[in-house]
Amino acid sequence: MIIRKASDVTPAVLEAMAATPDPRLRAVMDAFVRHMHAFVDEIKPTDKEFDRAIEFLNGIGQATNAKHNEAILFADAFGISTLVCLIDHARQGRSGTDVALLGPFWRLNQPKTANGGSIVRCDTPGEPLFVNGTVVDLQGAPLAGAEVDVWHASPGGMYEVQDPGQIEMNLRGKFATDAQGRFAFRTVKPAGYPIPTHGPTGDLLRAQRREPMRPAHIHFLIHKPGLRTLITQVFVADDPRLERDVVFGVTGDLVGDYRAHEGGAPAPDVKGRWHSLDHRFVMEPGESVLPHPPIA
Ligand code: BEZ
Ligand code: FE
């Protein structure tokens, strides 16, 4: 079709794609083109703005490497990851523990760690935290043999992959629940931290005068065949940024019962203040697929 005016373009593209055999791809690309064309029509970009947009998209790819996933970061910072996560969860009818975005820092093959073991693998700031988790099904029955991945940033403000001062796999572990569905580990109480801002997502956040901070949390990914993989985060209640997480990850009922204690710690080397977190995770029936790891 020869294009004679702007309003000819959208129908021409839709028609060109109409014979796509895969019905899902056909529906997705049809919606993508309609929405993108409507977006362009609404903002009416100049050539210079279009150049800037292309440069931005290329920058997302260029900033991505084995240790950093700028595309996920962008999707997170603009609420897309949370939207996908909540829509997908609602599709199955919500019943288990609330879900939260995976983020760009989960790694495959986190170190298997015995229950009660520590995930603090090198000198790390922060007060000791002892986590006791229980994994149950919708009826409250304990789930034995579930794999529980945990990971969090150092209170120094970075994940170990961002920080040459931390040893490989610091603050990461993989646990297996026992016959009562329990798992336990020692770590340090997490603190809020900034998401990486060296790429185009950071440039955009600065242009929007947005603070790049996440409230303190620990990530959990719980996997057991026959059950829907549970990806969630447990937040610290007194973090002042709970209501303004830069990635909109505080969803539903995910604030944990982190408690401070003085004395009587479960480990003899802990003398002063320490913390506990007891948390129950409820898994739903469903697909036990693992996500594609955002970093290597
Ligand atoms: C995280 O919690 O690890 C995270 C999530 C989104 C963007 C950056 C970091
Ligand atoms: Fe995190």
Structural features, described:
It is a single chain. Strand 7 and strand 8 form a beta hairpin. The longest helix is centred in the N-terminal third of the chain and has 21 residues, at 23-43. Helix 1 runs antiparallel to helix 2 (23-43). It contains six helices and eleven strands. It has helices at residues 6-17, 23-43, 47-63, 70-77, 80-91, 200-207, and strands at residues 128-136, 147-151, 172-176, 182-188, 193-194, 213-214, 217-223, 230-236, 255-256, 258-262, 273-282. The strands form three sheets. It has a five-stranded mixed beta sheet with strand order 3-2-7-8-9, with no helix packed on it. Strands 4-1-11-10 form a four-stranded mixed beta sheet, with no helix packed on it. Strands 5-6 form a two-stranded antiparallel sheet. The model has no long low-confidence stretch (mean pLDDT 96). The protein is of the alpha+beta class and 296 residues long. The structure holds benzoic acid and fe (iii) ion (FE). The site of benzoic acid has 8 residues, from helix 4.
